[in-house]
Amino acid sequence: MNLTKREKMAVLATFIYMLIMSTGMYVLKHVYHIDYGQPQMVTVLNYFLPFAVGSSLIIYFLFFRGTAFKKPQFNWWLAELFVASVLLAAFQFGFGDYSGKDMALIWAIIGSTFMVGIGEEMLFRGIIFTAFREKRGIYIGVLMSAFIFGFLHCTNLFAGATLGHTLLQMVSASLSGIVFAWVFYKTQNIIPAMICHWFWDMCLLIGLYVPISQAQYMGLAQNLFETVAGIVLLIIIVRHIRTKHVNFS
What does the alpha-carbon distance between residue 102 and residue 206 come to, in Å, rounded to a whole number? Predict the structure, then answer.
């Protein structure tokens, strides 16, 4: 595959991001002895996230400026994600009992997931999707951004996540990545995806610390929706690629 200049920058951005987060995961497990999946992991990862997010923002503004912040276009995909995110946050914060809880940890989770929402959407949708879409079309851009997004989650192995759980998360993230890439394509603006991504991760981690059944059911329903929607979009994309004989090179 002959890569364009922007595609090379997208590969570089991915390598830098994954290197930083892999280091953070390793330190989390082997220095601080915190396993992946514990809410306390954000207290360590917050030292690495600014560098990971910063690297993506720098590459975006140097090589992709103006491609991810166009006038937003309304679509029903975005409406579904927005409503689900708001309901999830409403359940988590509206029904949760936070008395006696470590509010410093809560704020650390809010801050870390805010950075993740910005960094991952900028990298995978703002940079990777945009780079591969330019030469190879929308469908290849969606697949590349989604599959690389799924592959990012293999870094969880460095923090003690099991192989089975990691593989499952990689598949789930890839399918969700298809949906988020499609939403970005339809919306033409990365900010709504950043906000939805932030709300989702924030409620997921806070839910591990303060479990709320309503939020858990909402999360399961949304995860099911994204899985089904991702599979449907994947089938449509594969059929289109086969019919049109799309060349990856």
Answer: 11
